[in-house]
Model the fold of this input.
Amino acid sequence: MSDVKIAIGSDHAGLELKNFIKTILAELGLAPLDFGTDDACSVDYPDYGEKVSMAVSTGQVQRGILICGTGLGMSIVANKFPGVRAALCHDEYTAKMSRLHNDSNILVLGGRVLEKELAQRIVRVWLDTPFEGGRHLRRLEKIIELEKRLGNGS
Ligand code: RB5
Done:
């Protein structure tokens, strides 16, 4: 896992949790590309969601983590990008299933929703869980086809 390239970003509402998660990633030997925000000034989540989602969509990194207040805005932004499968997770089960069945490549968290301890467990399980493939791959291929039909595929 320590060879995976990972990007992270948040708005002001997710900044505290972002900084905490960076310490967890460091413990795991991961040095994420941090796209900001870097201070408590109010900013617009689409600007930071775009940076991380673009990095994942273009293959600059394999995984991303996005955090805003609820996680809702960031997940709406991220899922506009071709090839991005962003999963908003408030518990370990959905984080695990988002990897097993959906091969999620962006984890979205709510900084105003999650306690740090739970967020840590969510991040760890999300990083550790592989994609199951098989019938789930067929379903992901249908999403790629859908992106193409909608004119949003690469
Ligand atoms: C910022 O106040 C808040 O709206 C934002 O962090 C996020 O929760 C939006 O979905």
About this structure: The chain has six helices and five strands. The pocket of D-ribose is lined by residues 11, 13, 45, 68-70, 72-73 (CB under 6 Å). The mean pLDDT is 97. The chain has one domain: 6-150.
